[in-house]
Amino acid sequence: MNEFDYVRENAKRINFEIENAKAKYRSADDKIELMAVTKTVPPEAVNVAVESGITLLGENRVQEYLSKRDFYDKSARVDFIGHLQSNKVKYIIDTIGMIHSVDSVKLAEEINRLSKIRNKITDICIEVNIGREESKSGVMPEELDEIFYKLSEMPNIRVLGLMSIPPKECAEKFFSKMQELFIDIKSKNIDNNSVSVLSMGMSSDFPVAIKYGSNVVRIGTALFGSRK
Ligand SMILES: *Cc1c(COP(=O)(O)O)cnc(C)c1O
User: Fold this and answer.
1) What is the whole-number distance in angstroms between the Cα of residue 218 and the centre of ligand 1?
2) Ligand 1: centre distance to CA 191 (Å)
3) pTM to 2 decimal places
4) For ligand 1, what atom is nearest to the CA of residue 35?
5) Which of 38, 74, 43, 31 is nearest to 57 (CA)?
6) Per-residue model confidence (pLDDT) at position 183
7) What's the domain count of the chain?
8) How far is the CA of 2 from the centre of ligand 1 (A)?
């Protein structure tokens, strides 16, 4: 027992809701991963999530990630999901799992460059600003093809899919558009079938995201409670 036991209960409930959405909208062998979004959450609470079976964590901020990563249960992979400046890639490249939030060729070039030096291949997703919101990062939908081709040619990154944070209003319409873009990008990538990740859906809307093909839902509030 500890003060974060509620995280265990929340994880159970969220998994149940994911299973429900899957039963309703998807096929039985589809894999839908639950990511625990850890911004502002103390590592002790995060580790309760890991103990309850969540093996994927998502960090938003470089500084916060660096201060917390050593305290995380090593059985979980930590992905980066926040806006990332090119000059900060060097701080995370050695330990990060996938970078979901690649939103420019410049950022991709830096990830590619540093990965090459380290003799590794870094998995990334391209973030799409599907609602065309000024307040959000991501490439515009009409830029996606061109950026996808450019990034696909970089030998030390692997473009695994797309990520998005659609507007709260009309989320369903935007999830549906993301699904179209995802199918389209997959069809353009016949050489190697690496495009497989559609990262979308948060606490308030993940069942709808699952309806439209999401296979990574990123959950913070519903798991850890509201952020201070
Ligand atoms: C904070 C955050 C989430 C989780 O949001 P909740 O509404 O708390 O579930 C998911 N994705 C990104 C990129 C975030 O910054």
Assistant:
1) 6
2) 33
3) 0.96
4) 10
5) 38
6) 96
7) 1
8) 25
Which residue's alpha carbon is at the smallest distance from atom 12 of ligand 1?
A: 81
Ligand 1 touching residue 81 (CB < 6 A): yes
CA 21 – CA 27 distance, rounded (Å): 10
Distance 128 CA to ligand 1 centre (A): 15
DSSP type of residue 170: T
pLDDT score of 190: 59
Q: Is the CB of 40 under 6 A from ligand 1?
A: no
Q: Judge whether 216 and 199 are in contact, CB under 8 Å.
A: yes
62-71, 97-106, 181-190: which range is least confident on average?
A: 181-190
pLDDT tens sequence across 75-92: 999 999 999 999 999 999
Question: Across residues 5-19, what is the average pLDDT?
Answer: 97
Q: Is the beta carbon of 92 within 6 A of some atom in ligand 1?
A: no
CATH no. for residue 21? 3.20.20.10
Question: Count of CB atoms within 10 A of residue 113's CB?
Answer: 17
In this predicted structure, the answer to whether residue 166 has a pLDDT above a threshold of 70 is yes
Residues in the chain: 228
Q: Is 39 in the pocket of ligand 1 (CB under 6 A)?
A: yes
- H/E stretch holding 25 reads helix 5-25
Which H or E run includes 49?
helix 43-51
Nearest CA to ligand 1 atom 11: 218
> Which domain range does residue 197 map to?
5-224
Residues with Cβ < 8 Å from 144, sequence gap 6 or more? 126, 128, 162, 181, 185
